[in-house]
Amino acid sequence: MTLQFNDETFREDYSFHNSERAIKRFPFPFDKDSYMYAVNMEQHRGGPSDSIYEKRFDVDEHYVSEMRDRAMVLADDPLRCQSLPHMTLAGWDLLELIMVSKSEDYPDLFELHRDGDKWHWVNKPLGIDDHFTFMDETTLPYGPMEYITRQTQGDFCVLDQRDDNLWMDAGTITTQADWSLDFDIGMNFFEWHAPVPLAHEKGIFVRALKFLLNIQQSAPARRLNWTMTVNPLLDTSPENYHKWGIQKTSLTPENIGAKQHLRVELQTFFRLPRSNALVFPIRCYLCAFQDLMTVPKWGRRLHRVIRDLPEELATYKGFIDNRPMMLDYLSKFDDGLPTSNGIWPEIDSEPPLKSD
Amino acid sequence: MPKFEFPTSILSRPVYGVLEARAGHQHLMIADAEGAEAILDIATPDLMAKTHIIYIPKGTDFADELRALNPAQFYQGPSYAASVSRIQRVLQDAAMGLQLYLAGTEGLMGQVQSEAMKAGIPHTAIQTEHRGSIARRMQCVHCKGITEDVATDPFQCSHCNLNLFVRDHYSRRLAAYQAVCIDAEDPGNVPVKKGLYE
After folding, report:
1. pLDDT of B48-69, one tens digit each?
2. Which member of A25, A80, A222, A223 is catalytic?
3. What is the Cα–Cα distance from B108 to A133, expressed in whole angstroms?
4. A223 assigned to active site
5. CATH number belonging to domain B27-130
6. Shortest Cα–Cα distance, B129 to chain A (Å)
7. Which of A100, A167, A220, A242 is the residue whose CA sits 20 to 30 A from B104?
8. Mean per-residue pLDDT for B22-36?
């Protein structure tokens, strides 16, 4: 199919919107009617046709507008993209992984022509046509990690592996769920996750680290994570929290369906060949409550998950104050019928919402 | 002065120990204020004969006692900022096996640790002992400015004037805790300041 790119914004007038196709393929993160942290890893080797799992790096209708938003964030605050000196090789690894993947998975959008170390990269949606020398930084307008992540949706953490740990030593982070690369750069896996409640006690991070340290080349993994965002704001950074925090208080029973978004992260993990670094893309998908509610299964389930979520998690995810209003809204879409297992919408087999 | 027991916290928050004399032929001890007492506790004539002490009194009067230990080298600095280039120079010359001892406030220990890491010393090889003030070195996550010796929560950023709350999340690279706007969702509603750990 030919992809139509939306012309939309993730700030000020918030013209971001999901097409019907985007809603159907939204990565709803709850596979049952309740939620708790888990090491919910699986292989990242494709998935159902047209799902967000199908390609190695999903390109969707928001691509061009998301890249425009990233450029604005980086212009305002260059510290959102940083790479410690020993991470340049990993940056080249990442550039290669993305260029090869995108040109193979989306040949109508991206082309990569290689003649030894003379590379020619064509990015049609963004109008980029560059010749450069692989592994020669002077032939690109930015460092390799910054160059390619300005052209790829999702945040990118590039993790060095040493001392049986992973180290947040490089990244491009402009669509984050309230954490600061500039503060966390140089930290190890346990340190950058230190503020997360409950999961340490459950042994989640010890097991997750063990899994990640053993990820092999050509065998990437993935998981979903989620939070809540008022307005389709990609840049929910701590740096700008004093500007966007107030938006959380703008919800009313009338606007909550349109304003409140479920924010889902598709997190993937790829081993990089030369540096042995691990790249950890965090791809953000946003969907308004009113769009989610068009899928009966998701309506029933979201109400139950949010209602039963432990208070610590609702606080950490930043929506404890808005939870009662969310539940008032969501309860209208929960008729008490059972839901099928798994995250998929099951539009054809799940019963429509039963109204009294 | 009794030692302060920090409450257990999250995994990025530094944990300090008690200095002990280790074997080695080169010892570098850097302290501020009451940190002098941690050095006095482990000093022996043998150890001091191989020790370089860098000390920032911060209004205390331990300097004479330290000098009386007769260390191989002694420097008294008026402030950390005034001493940092000397500290960098000394770390640059450090031979393999140098023993590094830090004592005093979190801000002093954190900043020297960060310099030592840049010089190639792993942070796990550095001994630390907290003494004296429990005030923290805070980075405003919004403007990136550092406010030294923060003793209350919340506090006002000394650079951008936002009202900030004190987190336990700590960056070794920045040698600072993270501070975040406290009234972003309710501008002007700033809780009354309390002392840290109160």
Report:
1. 999 999 999 999 999 999 999 9
2. A223
3. 45
4. yes
5. 3.40.50.80
6. 21
7. A167
8. 97
